[in-house]
Amino acid sequence: MKYEWRKQEKHLYLPGKKPELITVPEQKFLMISGKGNPNHEDFSERVGVLYSLAYAIRMMPKQGYTPEGYFEYTVYPLEGIWDLTEEGRKSSTLNKDELVYTIMIRQPEFVTEEVVDKSFEIVRKKKPHPLLDEVTFGTMEDGLSVQMMHIGPYDNEAKSFEQMKKFIEENHLEITTLVHREIYISDPRKTEQSKLKTVLRYRVHSI
């Protein structure tokens, strides 16, 4: 049976439209960092490189190589960790050119450095790209977090963040870092803006 993150890990990827407190375990990711406006081509090139590696791992058995512990699964959604440059923080309005980000795609537990090396080999042969050199593989643990599902355009996320901050305050929590995480459940190329689903997440601690 195929492992579907939408079903098996619903609590992490399909939260409700109101803020909630969860604990996010350590996870493995393919990651690439960048700076600037996510509407520009450089961002979509980085997304493309991540997906080519993620699908190379997913399709490995068809290439005649089955990693130890492999199971059928759906490729995880794209995630992003967002911050601003020093210059961007000084501005009273959001200047997207000053955004700093790390985008990533989670990998199943069976994925090891060896499996990732193999995926690079496959992609370099089939679809070489200079940005491949910037992709890293590692683990990340959000731990205690407040998250909610934001429905609608990315530019309206501020309203959802306000709700989250209110919830954090009311529950005697504090945001650990102003860097926040977004998980893109919808494909923006195929979904109209008003229906986009994005998980928003802050790491928090009790006070």
UniProtKB/TrEMBL annotation:
Gene3D superfamilies the UniProt entry points to: Regulatory factor, effector binding domain
Sequence ranges assigned to domain GyrI-like small molecule binding in this UniProt record: 18-199
InterPro entries: GyrI-like, GyrI-like_CCH_Lin2189-like, Reg_factor_effector_dom_sf
Spans traversing the lipid bilayer: none
UniProt protein name: GyrI-like domain-containing protein
The organism of origin for this protein: Calidifontibacillus erzurumensis
Taxonomic lineage of the native organism: Bacteria, Bacillati, Bacillota, Bacilli, Bacillales
